[in-house]
């Protein structure tokens, strides 16, 4: 055989260069993917805006509703906290409307399709402007007109790169005034905020502030929110089954976890501690657990409800490891939700105290030069139990708890290496258990039921580990078929709502297994009062995993079996075509009471 390298085939180079212009062969194909459109948005196969009418079902309001209403004297009398539903009747005929759209917060797959749907609903008689770099760009008036050709490039692609995003919180009179001036100067009639719970709270405040008198003739600017976040914690019961981006992120994480699970009984030597993104709620880790069946999956909400300490949480993992070691299985996967530490009650109390101290003494702390100086100061300000707990943590972890908070006052948990902390604590606990297994062996809830032979096997077993954090890998992947379809319909809903003259709503689509129903949820009806950075603030409450939800109950019924055997599932890469392409998130199908896992959102239409 010749060792001289061959020249590349010019034909292949041509194919590859063409694909480079279109980013990749995959993206070239994906742009052509037809999308399902709900019947209310179709007239003779042409996409049109829908009208709206009151929905039959009512929102369950928070106990703070009466207090919240006082802060929305203009919005509440109009929305009356009533949900609207899209209808093919009284379609809006609005022309000349100028709408600006922005992304806010972390990226999530499908954002580009929201914009495509929005533009389609607005049609050629209205103008869509993109805001570059999120709320910060809105304050700076960084707007440009979006053309159909721009959208042909980004349809069905992941990420937020078309516009960019950021986490600036628009708050305070000065910033609201700034937005008002931008609206006035750009002759805006409406703004669409694509964001999570905090961004939709901001949208409600903006809708109130911009309700009237933005333009010389007294007109205001409408504001509508679109529910985005991979965390899945923006849910409103049956009205909003899930935020967009969750499906793509969890399918990507499930593929990665499935691959690792496939590796464990192949190489038979590692315990993998895997932290999964999802700042607060455990929806992401729960979905990935249901998809992959690991040995252990922590559910933060359960730990909080049972009031478990950090040491007790560590014991959960140790018991599973010991039980499997007794059976000769010295490998497995432990899933850790990103927000776990904030839900362990003693850690939560510590973090809350730190948040308050850091907010209150912001200036003093910023003036300090060393971490040691900051620590000394902070230790003097927190309670004795919190100080004791903090001092017991490894240094690296202790420093991380003192990192700068995000613009909403939250600890940036994606930066905290919980997976490494757990490995250290599990290792030292296992050492204790092996040194004298007697107190740990038995049938009580906090013991491990092992035979003498199994105890011997456990004591001799090795504990080798790897740690991973899957977060940024999943946020911007190409949208799944569901996220692509769902977001396009959310965009159609938002555009229709604006043309129908509505303001102060968040769009939603439910009945995801039954052709979909487009809804508008009044933002004021979602707001409650929560303590943040030491102050009471109006926020949209995060939807956490509920212990009585069908998804959690199902998980409870199977997790011991998964833990005690070496069964697992490898769901493989997400599919855009073929028999599994239409699979919904399992938690959505279970919690909404669907009879199967397949979504159906209407007739498939070529978008361009
Ligand atoms: P959003 O709530 O803005 O959608 O962001 C969610 C998230 O992806 C979390 O899961 C994660 O903790 C956080 O963003 C990471 O933030 P950042 O992008 O600032 O590192």
Bound molecules: 1,6-di-O-phosphono-beta-D-fructofuranose
| Quaternary organisation | single chain
| Termini separation | 50 Å
Into which percent range does the helicity of residues fall?
A: 40-55%
The fold-level CATH name of the largest domain is Rossmann fold
What is the arithmetic mean of pLDDT?
94
Instruction: Just give the CATH class of the largest domain.
Output: Alpha Beta
Q: Biggest sheet: strands, sense, closure?
A: 9 strands, mixed
Point out poorly predicted stretches.
none
What is the radius of gyration?
A: 26 Å
**Strands, count:** 19
Strand order of the largest sheet: 4-5-16-15-10-9-6-7-8
Strand proportion: 5-15%
CATH architecture of the largest domain: 3-Layer(aba) Sandwich
Structural class designation: alpha/beta
Give the overall shape, derived from the CA principal axes: globular
Distinct helical segment count: 25
What number of structural domains do the residues give?
3
Give short descriptive properties of this protein.
Arc Repressor Mutant, subunit A; 9-stranded mixed sheet; 608 residues; Rossmann fold; alpha/beta; 3 domains
């Amino acid at each position: 055989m010749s060792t001289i390298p061959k020249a590349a085939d010019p034909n292949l180079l041509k194919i590859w260069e063409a694909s480079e212009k279109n980013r990749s062969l995959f993206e070239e194909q994906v742009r052509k993917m037809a999308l399902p459109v709900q019947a209310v948005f179709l007239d003779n196969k042409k996409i049109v805006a829908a009208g709206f009418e009151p929905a039959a079902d009512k929102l369950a309001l928070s106990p703070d509703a009466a207090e919240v209403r006082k802060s929305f004297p203009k919005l509440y009398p109009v929305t009356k906290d009533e949900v609207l539903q899209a209808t093919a009747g009284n379609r809006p005929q609005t022309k000349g409307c100028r709408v600006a759209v922005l992304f806010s917060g972390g990226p999530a797959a499908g954002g580009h399709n929201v914009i495509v749907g929005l533009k389609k609903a607005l049609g050629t008689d209205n103008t869509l402007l993109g805001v570059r770099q999120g709320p910060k760009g809105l304050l700076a008036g960084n707007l440009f007109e979006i053309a159909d050709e721009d959208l042909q490039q980004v349809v069905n692609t992941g990420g937020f790169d078309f516009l960019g995003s950021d986490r600036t919180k628009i708050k305070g009179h000065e910033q609201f005034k700034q937005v008002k001036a931008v609206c006035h100067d750009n002759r805006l009639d409406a703004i669409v905020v694509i964001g999570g719970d905090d961004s939709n709270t901001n949208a409600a405040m903006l809708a109130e502030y911009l309700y009237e008198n933005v333009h010389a003739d007294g007109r205001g600017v409408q504001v509508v929110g679109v529910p985005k976040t991979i965390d899945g914690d923006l849910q409103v019961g049956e009205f909003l089954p899930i935020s967009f981006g969750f499906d793509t992120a969890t399918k990507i994480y499930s593929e990665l976890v499935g691959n690792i699970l496939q590796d464990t009984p192949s190489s038979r030597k590692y315990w993998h501690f895997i932290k999964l993104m999802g700042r607060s709620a455990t929806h992401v880790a729960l979905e990935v657990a249901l998809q992959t069946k690991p040995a252990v999956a922590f559910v933060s909400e359960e730990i909080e409800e049972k009031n478990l300490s950090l040491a007790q949480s560590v014991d959960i993992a140790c018991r599973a490891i010991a039980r499997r070691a007794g059976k000769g299985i010295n490998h497995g996967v432990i899933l850790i939700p990103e927000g776990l530490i904030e839900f362990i009650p003693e850690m939560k109390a510590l973090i809350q105290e730190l948040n308050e101290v850091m907010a209150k003494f912001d200036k003093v702390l910023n003036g300090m030069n060393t971490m040691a100086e900051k620590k000394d100061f902070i230790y003097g300000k927190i309670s004795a139990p919190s100080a004791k707990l903090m001092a017991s943590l490894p240094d690296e972890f202790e420093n991380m708890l003192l990192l700068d908070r995000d613009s909403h006052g939250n600890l940036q948990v994606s930066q905290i290496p919980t997976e490494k902390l757990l490995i250290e604590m599990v290792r030292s606990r296992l050492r204790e258990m092996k040194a004298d297994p007697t107190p740990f062996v038995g049938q009580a809830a906090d013991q491990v039921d092992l035979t003498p032979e199994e105890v011997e096997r456990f004591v001799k077993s090795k504990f080798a580990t790897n740690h991973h954090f899957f977060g940024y890998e999943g946020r911007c992947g190409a949208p799944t078929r569901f996220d692509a379809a769902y977001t396009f319909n959310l965009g159609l809903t938002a555009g229709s709502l604006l043309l129908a003259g509505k303001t102060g709503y968040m769009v939603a689509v439910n009945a995801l297994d039954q052709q979909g129903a487009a809804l508008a949820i009044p933002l004021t009806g979602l707001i409650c009062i929560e303590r943040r950075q030491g102050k009471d603030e109006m926020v949209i409450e995060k939807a956490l995993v509920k212990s009585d939800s069908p998804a959690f109950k199902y998980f409870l019924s199977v997790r011991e079996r998964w833990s005690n055997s070496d069964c697992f599932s490898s769901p493989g890469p997400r599919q855009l075509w073929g028999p599994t392409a239409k699979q919904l998130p399992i938690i959505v199908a279970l919690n909404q009471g669907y009879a199967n896992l397949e979504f159906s959102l209407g007739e498939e239409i070529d978008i361009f």
